[in-house]
């Protein structure tokens, strides 16, 4: 049975939760393998809207085991806040598994994140202030706290002391902030032990055994390709591997078990935070996309930057991730435009680039080369086959497939789990 990786093809917020949910009945495990609560999935089920930040979207599918993998950084306060919120709405969260090797976001990570962003001023990255980057920095610097450490008070205290030894100097002497006490951090983390213990296991073993038993596993990326720390628009990126390769390092499942890579791409483009964005609109069309698409961050509420579809980015995502299938979302948001531009290349100082320029400097100066397609005015939210779409919408889907580097296997035509046209079987 397949191991499927699901990634975002742009700068995030493409609708990965909807794509996961559309596959839900066929899935035995859904694994979050990177990131933390710095991003979110919005999933609409039976008219109910669920905003998930840390939990895998498979938490909403009965019979599916949701897994937080070792590549995730976990804010335990957020974890239990989300669990309590879903439980209050009748969602069973008892099947959740959490890797013992996942790293913990401690309160001092959030403090460092926020004061660093303010200190950077105009050079800020645009982080969510959730402590994600500092937690990953501690992981790489080998002073991080892992989930398993919370179960041994002696080790926990030793690691927190080591982490704060440097950070308190930084907070007090550079940022003029008060030092953080070791006891307050240790006491807070120990407070989660009893609730946390039943969830924690060697998730890598469980996932590989599940595949051996013929079960279907979906690896669900946080953020997206253009925010990947290696392959994104560095430094305006996240702190983890959000591409398909990250599914293996972030879960403990080997690369030769991956069968399918699904990339989710919007029918237009958005991003949150700082950084280059060639097709960004600063006019009425941008405002209209934002309003019609409800383009406000799930985690932060920040208005998203909006622009037209960028085919070079889609081709890049197809190449970097080894995409076998695209899921095109939010086609309905484009209803009402007479003509719809699609970026097919860039112009950099008079030179055409059909792919993303090699250097960040050139990408900052790239201007889009557009082709224009006819729009449509009909409501498409009730369409369930490609043939039911207006002819112009059909041509738009086909045109995007022709320039994006992989087939489009599903098309989202509305916010609900049922608002989907399936063109090809992806499992």
Describe the fold and architecture.
With 427 residues, this protein is an alpha/beta fold. The protein has 3 domains: 3-99 and 200-262, 3-Layer(aba) Sandwich (Adenylosuccinate Synthetase, Chain A, domain 1), CATH 3.40.440.10; 103-194, Adenylosuccinate Synthetase, subunit A, domain 2, CATH 1.10.300.10; 265-422, Alpha-Beta Complex (Adenylosuccinate Synthetase, Chain A, domain 3), CATH 3.90.170. It is built from 13 helices and 20 strands. The chain has helices at residues 16-23, 76-88, 107-120, 132-140, 153-174, 182-190, 193-196, 203-212, 246-249, 284-292, 311-321, 360-364, 391-404; strands at 3-8, 29-32, 41-45, 48-52, 65-68, 73-74, 97-99, 103-104, 200-201, 217-220, 260-266, 269-271, 305-307, 309-310, 325-329, 339-348, 351-353, 367-374, 407-412, 420-422. The strands form 5 sheets. It has a 10-stranded mixed sheet, sandwiched between helices. Strands 14, 16, 17 and 18 form a 4-stranded mixed sheet that branches. The longest helix has 22 residues, at 153-174.
Concise structural overview:
This protein is α/β, with parallel strands linked by helices and 427 residues long.
